[in-house]
Amino acid sequence: MRTVIRTFCVSVVASALLLGLASETFAEHENKKKVRKVRAASACSAGSSSSVARFKIEKGEALPASIPKALTKKPGNAERGLEAAVNPGKGNCLACHHIAKVLAKADESDPESVKLYGNHGEVGPPLNGVGARFSKAELRMIVVDPKKAFPDADTVMPAYHARTASKDVKRACRGRVMLSAQSVEDIVTFLEELK
Amino acid sequence: MRRLLLGLLLGLALYPVQSLAAGDGKTTAVKPESKDHPLKELWSGTHYSSPEVRKLQDSDSDNPAMKLFGKGETLWKKAEGRAKKSCSSCHGDTATSMKGAATRFPAFFKLSKKPVNIETRINLCRTKFMQARALPADSEPLMALSIYVKRQSKGMAISVAGDGPLQPFLEKGKDYFTTRRGQLDMSCAACHDKYAGQRYRAVKMSQGHANGFPAYSLSAKKTGSLLRQVNQCLARVRALPLKQGSDQLTNLELYLAWRAGGLGVETPAVRE
Questions:
Q1: For B60-73, what is each residue's pLDDT tens digit?
Q2: Quick check: is A160 in a domain?
Q3: Distance between CA B184 and CA B123 in Å, rounded?
Q4: Nearest C-alpha of chain B: how many angstroms from A37?
Q5: pLDDT of A114 over the 50 cut
Q6: From B179, which residue of chain A is nearest by alpha-carbon distance?
Q7: Quick one: which of A15, A65, B45, B160 has the fewest CB in 10 Å?
Q8: pLDDT digits over A144-154, tens only?
Q9: Residue A61: inside a domain, yes or no?
């Protein structure tokens, strides 16, 4: 009888403890999750997204791979694509590429405009005429995951809509891609019109 | 006739010396010593600076980071800790005792069996011999002492040993430098080996040498450590930052020093 009572007491205490602990950790966990979400949204970048669209890769004409089907139902918008390509927190394509159409937007008398549209990098080839060199499906592949698009898988160009980053990704960016599916479609439409 | 011959001989004798000394990495390139070096010619970051910034760097009175040099000199002579000693109690005149030190660091530290950089070495002296507290990472006094010590090697060629006990650490540093990381999945080598001299948006990328650090940044209006610079680069590719005093940072610094072998010490450099 004694042992039964003792067992009962112990189990009550234990389950109370367990319950208490569990509920505390759960609340804490929820809280942390919220904080993490807020931080991730603000600290990674303006364009980053945690959801990745499904897509099918097929062989291209000029390139080994292409993505024929659009990532979104909503069609891309070239004007928004240009802005996303220029934005340092989104595509930042200008870091590496010269684009004459963008340069033409730089207003010499306005330092902010020069800062945004006037400084073009030289790491990659100029993008003038890419709409004539590649199909839309290939351009989509290039922006989504250039390591798959180009014959040289060792390219420095970052993947914008594939989780290919291997190491030491900043916490706020983990599991996220650089551009949302819609931004990719916008940029691809902008590129397509560079003929 | 005799004088002419003498002149000719003298000229011949001087010729190779002059051609060697000509490479300062700013106006003329330095040839890397090792065949395994990733770069064909070495250029200091100062090579890409405007003439005005270069003048600022070269002037002891106008270089804004030289204020810290002055603070370093004061600290060097100040007795601290339970042993009531200063740096100068053990090392005397820096112009002789510290001459060339910056060319050899990070150096192997026998007690801990790994390389230490100058900042860690300074803190080891403080805790072991002065019985004083270590200076906080990246703090102004530590940067001041570091600048004061490194300046004693001004213009002297960097030359760390790539073999011997340092070798495995050098390999690790090279590994860090050449490994892709961050959300952009880029390595230090992509920007500073492969595309050095090329523009990245508004800035021309240098070869990423550490020979001018700590360096003064005109845009940030303050002197910054190598760690701060490297962490800026890591933030650019959205990668985790390195930590002060970590083995990763020391190994990377060691590889950077090996990679800059032959370039002159320029601490404190001035950058845009």
A1: 999 999 999 999 99
A2: yes
A3: 36
A4: 17
A5: yes
A6: A167
A7: A15
A8: 999 999 998 89
A9: no
With tokens 């112009």, the residue in question is B95
Asked, colleague to colleague, whether B2-62+157-271 and B66-151 share their fold, the answer is yes
> A156, B190: Cβ pair inside 8 Å?
yes
Q: Strand B215-217 vs strand B222-224: parallel, antiparallel, or unpaired?
A: antiparallel
Using pLDDT thresholds of 50, 70 and 90, give the confidence band for residue A164. confident
The total of other beta-carbon atoms located within 10 Å of residue B79's CB is 13
Q: What CATH number has the domain spanning B2-62+157-271?
A: 1.10.760.10
The CATH topology of domain B66-151 is Cytochrome Bc1 Complex; Chain D, domain 2 (1.10.760)
pTM over 0.90: no
Yes or no, beta carbons of B201 and A95 under 8 Å apart: yes
Question: How far, in Å, are B75, B155, B187, B261 from residue B43 at the CA level?
Answer: 33, 14, 20, 11
Compute the half-sphere exposure of residue B68: CA atoms within 13 Å on the CB side of its CA: 27
Domain coordinates in residue numbering, chain B? 2-62+157-271, 66-151
Query: What is the interface pTM, i.e. ipTM, of the complex?
Result: 0.88
CB contact under 8 A, A158 and B202: no
